[in-house]
Amino acid sequence: MRYFVAVAEELHFGRAAQRLGIAQPPLSRAIRQLERRLGVTLLERTSRSVTLTEAGSVLLREGRAALDAVDAADRRTRRAALAATGHPGLVLVTKAGASSELLSKLLDAYAAEPGAVAVDVLLCGPAEQERLLRDGRADVALLHRPFDSTVGFDTEELRTEGQVVALPAGHPLTGRAHLRMADVTALPGLPLPRWPRPDGTYPDGPGPAVRDHVQLLQLIALGRASAVLPESVWAHLGRDVATVPVLDAPTVTTVIAWPPHSRSRALAGLVRAATRL
Amino acid sequence: MRYFVAVAEELHFGRAAQRLGIAQPPLSRAIRQLERRLGVTLLERTSRSVTLTEAGSVLLREGRAALDAVDAADRRTRRAALAATGHPGLVLVTKAGASSELLSKLLDAYAAEPGAVAVDVLLCGPAEQERLLRDGRADVALLHRPFDSTVGFDTEELRTEGQVVALPAGHPLTGRAHLRMADVTALPGLPLPRWPRPDGTYPDGPGPAVRDHVQLLQLIALGRASAVLPESVWAHLGRDVATVPVLDAPTVTTVIAWPPHSRSRALAGLVRAATRL
DNA sequence: GGCGGCGATACCGCTCCGGTATCGAGCCAG
DNA sequence: CTGGCTCGATACCGGAGCGGTATCGCCGCC
Hints:
- 2 copies of one chain form a homodimer.
- Chain A is of the alpha+beta class.
- Chain A is built from 9 helices and 10 strands.
- Chain A has helices at about 1-10, 15-20, 25-40, 55-85, 100-110, 130-135, 180-185, 215-220, 265-275, and strands at about 45, 50, 90-95, 120-125, 140-145, 155-160, 165-170, 225-230, 240-245, 250-260.
- In chain A, the strands form 3 sheets. The first copy, chain A, has a 5-stranded mixed beta sheet. In chain A, strands 8-7-9 form a 3-stranded antiparallel beta sheet.
- Chain A is flat, with a radius of gyration of 23 Å.
- The interface of A and B includes residues 38, 65, 72 and 78 of A.
């Protein structure tokens, strides 16, 4: 399975073999065996190129999910063992720079509960959270709909907020009481940023590539970008960035999310604290 | 992994080995290797009994999920290959005897759409649906909240309805216009039925063990049981079963559910047809 | 038309898995 | 208390399968 995913991602047996730390011939053979076992052609190969068949791309998606599931089984088991021997602790993951005041309130509220355990906070770029939560590296996440998909997780809504446009201080539009999406989608000289895709690559376009909100706000302050963001970013703003509400931007809901069927007492306590905020 | 799940379920190396079709010593060794690899004690064994540790029960849960995920990858890949070679088709699973008129409306509506594919209907007992959908034997399910868990699936709500109590025709209470839960929970001589648990065993209790709604209605007609059921069961009722609304019973929501990230055109069409009903 | 890149094939050695035989620790019967 | 059982662990052996090297065959390309 790992072998197939590697080949499907690289679309090149040699590179895939290198990535897997094995030689190319066993890899060819393994893929052929997998195809024989399934009775399905997964890859169309000529001696010049390798492409995925329809079935192959299904197996790529499903296979990744399956590999994540076994990784998760691994990690969660190890963590359960640690927890039993007196080192409990939860790992919470959230986007760097988002919902920070909500997060600190949550951590305070939970810490005040009887029986609270240590909570490690893991900050990451957008789109990485889902995978961290799915493969067991994190126990719980703060996600932001509609940007993050909550598919496959249990969730509780924590807060809903509007969005504002963040602009360099002194920009002409900062005088306005409110704006509309149409006003801010194509500001001359202030392109919208490009966020990484799940695989770490960036789409093409004019805007600067950013990895988290801190970077983004810095670029806005420098007059190189603008962005539409949830209201709560104001917590990070210095004097060099101004915000104006955008009336017709979609509202953003912050949710606390965790893997289904988690039955840890510590996690339940954290979720309870979150819903009481 | 399969080995561990077998041992954890049987709590007996000999029986587990038999179930797996291997001898007992390799099984012992495999489990010990797994424990060494994870650095975790999964089972406490004396020569008289085997019990799960905390970590072991986590791995049992997670491991089952992981095995389901690889089964699903397998099956979905095979189905994708079939679909590509001209045999499309969806498998829809629902509880035998539930929501049948909704289901037939759905199938009709979908069949009328351009590009509709064949839909195989799979009927099963309650609590099996989740697994069938999770491990790829089915593409889509009709679930009934709050009885079924929709955790880990994408869903759309189709219908919400109240519940009625089903009684043998002629029972004194059938004259009443409506009832309350308190009136129907302990009817003398008409115990509530016992449904199977996910593992196929039945809880203890006075009521008859039933596998689906057809059996149940038959037992009610025979004066051996009563049950609180969604209103829509009336579609199956003969003259020998009467129903009375139960005002304070929880409402039942029928939802259409499918595995997250499914991107099949046929599935999307079916869901669209469902939401338009 | 020769060269180079790339996947497939052929063949070999070693590791790991599964099988049989046996041991050793508890529980039980008498 | 002792012999027999039940059941998991250990010891050892044989074979299948995986990974490695060497090589082939196909196809673009200069």
